[in-house]
Amino acid sequence: MAKQMSHEPDSIPAIMTNRSAAPVGRRGPGANGEAEKPMIPRRCSVQEFSFAAHVDGQENQSFIEEVAAPVVILVHGEKHNMMRLKSKLLSLNNDKATKTKIFSPANTEELRIPFKVDKTARVVGQLAQLPPPKSSDPEEERLITGVLVQNDFKMSLMAPEDLREYAGLNTTTIMCKQKITLSAAGIDLIKWALEGTFGAIEEIKPQKKPSSNGATQVNGNGVSHEEEIADEEIEYSPHAVAYLVMGCVIVRYQNNGQVEVEWEGNMLNDGIADAVLAVLFTAESSPAAVKQSSKSHQHHHHQGERNLHSNVTPEERFSRLCMFLEAQFGPLVTPLAKPKTLPKPPKPALDGDGIKNEPEEEADEDDVEDQEAEEIERLHSIGIPVPGVQIKVDKQVVKVWLETLEVECASNVLRERVKAVVERAVETVAPLWGKGKN
């Protein structure tokens, strides 16, 4: 009845709920020979108000315009009406510089829309104390390594050591141990093999059991017991020898041939530990790993062959350095033919007598070549075969000058990385240059 009255007719058919009730109003003509139904004349004005919980098309359009939505997906509606709304929204793109994307997918139809949102993280703790980059170029990238923590849509970047203070998280250090038994290789051969691979190694004293002075402790049940020693405080034999390799891996050797390798678990230390174990197994299978007899013998030991680890020439040291760099940065490691020449200091404007000096003329190519030849000769005299090496990593070019080990690169991150590798390489292959050094 309400639907009929919304069209404001002159009269509407009455709905009789009581058949015995007297007919009201006049009767209208029947349909299909049926009895005429009483008609009720309309004596009121009609106004329509929307009380629906959902907005209509006009309100949807206004909301989309107000929020400036870049993407609109039409769902949960009658297909024909959604297509009409889609056409209406697309027609509004004519006056827009940035077009709104309108989608009306069918049921179960997958729709992929890329979203790019810039996220900002607050740097706290030790990382916040790092000095800003020296370069004034705002486009220069700066790499910061840390742990990214998100809490209630807020992100913070911090060092692992600051997790407890700033994030309330505990950190755990994993100590890795590997035990092997060597039946042939002795401590002298092991030390020689480790020094030949990793350079100088540090000898450390074995840990001693802390003295408890005979004290006893009482547990919760009143029973006394001796103080327990943690795993990290295990007493090693006084005859054990321990070496620290690359500052992170400890190698302990017992007289019975048992070797224990211990290190703090992380990506870098795990790789060094694998290399240490490989060196130990290589030393065990080496022909030199033979127990020598103390009795006299008839044969002679010939010393004609040169020890590969003594009296190394500068060319051999340079070759080892290149092999080290190629293992780290790839095969694009080439020597530099031209040295790094320093510019001459400018002359003062006035000489000693107060007379104005004439401006210097630019050096011609012959003078530059003479300076380069003198510099190369000087480098050769101190045992440096080439002025430096050039390393190419993707689009970055790095130059390393061998005399001072100075590293030049446009990227600060790559420069520091190469500098650290070169310093480690120099420690591994022994001091590069200098007379009389082995």
Question: Tags for this entry?
Answer:
mRNA processing; RMMBL; alpha+beta; RNA endonuclease activity; 438 residues; CPSF73-100_C; 5-stranded antiparallel sheet; disordered C terminus; 9 helices; 4-stranded antiparallel sheet
Explain this structure.
This is Pre-mRNA 3'-end-processing endonuclease polyadenylation factor C-term domain-containing protein. Residues 294-303 have a biased composition (Basic residues). Residues 207-226, 288-312, 335-369 are annotated as: Disordered. The protein is of the alpha+beta class. It is built from nine helices and 18 strands. Helix 7 (314-329) packs across helix 9. The protein is elongated and about 125 Å long.
Map the helices and strands:
Elements: H1 2-5, E1 11-13, E2 39-41, H2 57-67, E3 71-73, H3 79-91, E4 101-103, E5 121-123, E6 147-151, E7 154-158, H4 163-167, E8 175-181, H5 187-198, E9 202-204, E10 216-218, E11 224-226, E12 241-245, E13 249-253, E14 258-264, H6 267-285, H7 314-329, E15 333-336, H8 365-381, E16 388-393, E17 396-401, E18 406-408, H9 412-428
Parallel strand pairs: 3-4, 5-7
Antiparallel strand pairs: 1-2, 6-7, 8-14, 9-12, 10-11, 12-13, 13-14, 15-16, 16-17, 17-18
Uncertain segments? 214-234, 434-438
| Range of strand content | 15-25%
Largest sheet: 5 strands, antiparallel
**Mean pLDDT figure:** 77
Order of helices and strands: HEEHEHEEEEHEHEEEEEEHHEHEEEH
**Which structural class fits the helix and strand makeup?**
alpha+beta
Number of strands: 18
Shape summary: elongated
What oligomeric state best describes the polypeptide chains here? Answer: single chain
| Order of strands in the sheet with most strands | 8-14-13-12-9
Straight-line distance between termini: 110 Å
Tally of contiguous helical segments: 9
Radius of gyration: 43 Å
Helix share of residues?
Answer: 25-40%
